[in-house]
Amino acid sequence: MTRTVGLVVCAAGGALEATGGLVAPLVAAGHRVAVTLTPTAAPWFSPSDLDSLARFTGLPVRWQPRLPHERSPHPRIDCYVVAPATAHIVAKLATGAADTQALTQVSEALGTATPVVVFPRVNAAHTRHPAWEENTARLRRAGVRLVEGPEVWPLHEPRQGPPTRSLPWSHILAAVEDALRAAPAL
How confident is the model at residue 40 (pLDDT cuts 50, 70, 90)? Predict the structure, then answer.
C-alpha cells in the first residue's frame, strides 16, 4: 500500500541533502513524498532544484499557504517528518506557534493518529537553553518521535563540529518507516 510522507525541510545544515537522503529512499520504498519548505529554507533551493523535486515526487513543492479558494495540492499525509529541524522550529512546534504553512500542517497532526518524526539539527548550546528540555518533553508527550542522541547526532559546540558532517538519514528513514508500520491506515 502506498503511503504519503509529508516532509518539512527547515533552513538548517543538510537541508539540500534531503532529496538524496530521504526523498529518494522513500520513493524507492514505494511511498509518495509531499515536500514543504519553511519560508526561510525555500530560497536555499534553486528554481531548477524545486522543479526537479516536483517532477521526482509528482507533487508541487510548497512553502506558501494556499488561498482560501484553492484546494490543497498535497494528498492526505500518513506521516510527517521534519528534517532537518532547527531549534527555532522545535520551539515553535512545541508551543503551538503555527505561523507558516510548514508549521501549520505539522501542528495540526499533533494529537491525531498521524505520526510525526522530528530530527533536531542542533548543537550543544541549543540543548543547554532552559526551554529545550521542556520543548522536547512536550513534543514527546504529543507522541512525536524525536530522532536524537549521541549515536545519531553527536552534539558539538557552535562552529566546532566537523564542517562536512552528513545528516543521519538512515536513522531518520528508519524512524519514518517504523512510524508508518505502527500507524493505522487511514
Answer: very high
Segment 19-47 shows an average pLDDT of 96
Asked if residue 58 belongs to a domain, the reply is yes
CATH code, domain with 38 = 3.40.50.1950
Nearest to 173 by CA among 152, 155, 143, 142: 152
Containing structural domain, residue 55: 4-65+74-154+166-182
Q: What is the pTM of this model?
A: 0.96
d(CA 185, CA 167): 29
For residue 9, the tally of other CB atoms under 10 A from its CB is 30
Please count the structural domains in the chain.
1
Tell me what pLDDT residue 165 has: 81
In degrees and rounded to multiples of 5, residue 61 shows phi and psi of -85, 125
Burial class from Cβ neighbours inside 10 Å (0-12, 13-18, 19+) for residue 36 reads buried
